[in-house]
Amino acid sequence: MQDPMGERGTTASDVARRVETLQGFGRLDEAAEECGTGLASFPEDPRLWDLLSEIELARENFAAAEHAARTAVGLDPENDLLPMTLVLILIDRERFEEARDLARWMVAKQPEVPAANLLLAHAEAGVGRQQPGAFHLARQHAQIAVSLAPNDAAVLSSAASVMGRAGDRAEAARLVRRGLAIAPADSGLLLQQADYGARTDAGATRLIRAVLAEDPTDSATAWALRETIWTRRRLIPAFAIWSAVALLFPLACVVVVVLMIKNLVILFGGLRAASPRGEYRRSWEQAPHLRFAVPLALACLPWPLWAVATGGAGAGIPFLGLLVAELAILFAGRADERRLEGLHSASTLRHIARIKREEANTGWGRLTVAGIAALTGLAAIGSVIVAWTVYSGEGAGGAVVAIGVAFGLAAVFAGPTLVALVQAKERRLTAEGLPVAGAIRAARLLAATAIAVAATAALVAGVGVVLAR
Question: Where is the signal peptide (predicted)?
Fold first, then answer.
């Protein structure tokens, strides 16, 4: 059988040039087809296998990309830089220890190559999630890469990402500023400036808006803007709920009130000024039936006035409203986020899932408060039994109030946090391409249960106030 490439007088280098040209124009399917045709004639050419691995990685065919990359390395084991694509694939698939071992071999062979040091830095930062001591090595190799290429904006951006993951936000911000001095219009650096360099969410949103102005189709930037808006919306009921606990500590109450005012100013002032026209309205498009959430949160914000106006009997009503508002904002924000998921790459989805998981984990303090409240409610139930048995009902009203308040607070504090944790699991399942229906049902069930418990507790507390009188 005659070689079709031979008829055209084509060499492996000719095929590689055509593949690279197609890659440069973003025509990945055609590039993959051309590469496959070339490999049929030149199956022992490591460069073609390496190009195929790059293409499959860009197309998110990770298994095929890894096979091609390993084949390329096996065909030319003495090529010190050929394993780069394989390291990238391993990092993307979060197999950080394998990536680290291979990157260490590359750095040992070519210590003066910035890209090799950066790959090792990223791998060490990934390992640092389980072994915090690895963060030191990640910072060290990122700094080496910067010293080798101090005027390369891409190197500075990548090093800043490593520093941010290692928890050194100040150094990350400094590297981003250096990068922007070299490439002031670089969208990646502008987004990193929003993450590491902005002092307020309003400032971060202005930077995000600048990136959107450069490229309105950038889905990652759109997600960053929407995420800031939704986070600030949720903080309205969240701060109001925390103010109930803060009343026990006057100084803490002042801090919560100041943060609440600051959040409102940023949300309705800074963010509106920085957001593109219609962004607030568009952010509700996927859940218009939940638009009541923010007005409800604002109406329930002055909850002490409700308590004064009803003589304490209706104190639970605004807290029930705050719970409903926070849960509605969580579900609306998730619905809005799903609209953008189809535009993200798999690696971006995993990155988002990791960020939201870390954010959801910050709610464990709320779960602690909920647990204490629930234990208090159980103690109150015991006191009711003792009162009815020993004192013929004396003090029953106060105990009923305690039961209602305790379990109401438990639902108000625990409900949104548990829903956020379930939604974080849903994001992870989505990123991995696994079924998510069970997680969605669990979040809705938790929300309904929290509302039911809080409503019942508000009623019980109101009845208790009447009995206590």
Answer: none
Torsion of the alpha carbons at 266, 289, 434 and 366, rounded to the nearest 10 = 50
pTM of the entire structure? Answer: 0.71
Residue with tokens 């699991």: 425
Report the alpha-carbon distance of residue 243 to residue 182 in Å, rounded: 46
Q: What is the DSSP letter of 455?
A: H
- Does the structure show a pLDDT above 50 at 7? no
Q: Does position 10 have pLDDT exceeding 60, yes or no?
A: yes
What is the rounded CA–CA span in Å between residue 103 and residue 117?
Answer: 8
Question: How far is the C-alpha of 425 from the C-alpha of 445, rounded, in Å?
Answer: 15
Closest by CA to 334, choosing from 348, 353, 306, is 353
For residue 4, pLDDT beyond 50: no
- The alpha carbon torsion through 87, 89, 92, 96 (nearest 10 deg) reads -40
Q: Which residues of 23-50 are buried (b: 16+ CB within 10 A; e: fewer)?
A: beeeeeebbbebbebbbebbeebbbbbb
Residue identified by tokens 């950038």 is 218
Residue-level pLDDT at 433: 76
Tens digit of pLDDT for each residue in 407-427?
999 999 999 999 999 999 998
Which of 90, 70, 373, 390 is CA-nearest to residue 245? 373
With 50 as the cut, is the pLDDT of residue 392 above it?
Answer: yes
Q: How far apart are CA 32 and CA 269, in angstroms?
A: 49
* Two structure tokens written together for 267: 């949300």
Q: What are 308-323's pLDDT values in tens digits?
A: 777 666 778 899 999 9
- Rounded to whole angstroms, what are the CA distances from 179 to 143, 183, 191? 14, 6, 12
State the burial class of residue 170 (Cβ atoms within 10 Å of its Cβ: 0-12, 13-18, 19+).
exposed
The whole-angstrom separation of Cα 391 and Cα 396 is 9
Q: Give the separation between CA 116 and CA 122, rounded to whole angstroms.
A: 10
CB atoms within 10 A of CB 406: 23
Measured at the alpha carbon of residue 326, what is the angle toward residues 323 and 327, in degrees to the nearest 5? 85
Q: Within 10 Å of residue 375's Cβ, how many Cβ atoms?
A: 12
Q: Burial code of 69-106, b = ≥16 C-beta within 10 A, e = fewer?
A: bebbbebeeeebebbbbbbbbbbbbeebeebbebbbeb
- Give the separation between CA 63 and CA 92, rounded to whole angstroms: 12
Dist CA 445 CA 450 (whole Å): 9
Distance separating alpha carbons of residues 196 and 271, to the nearest angstrom:
18
Region 205-230: what's the mean pLDDT?
Answer: 76
Report how far residue 225's alpha carbon sits from residue 232's, in angstroms, rounded to the nearest whole number.
11
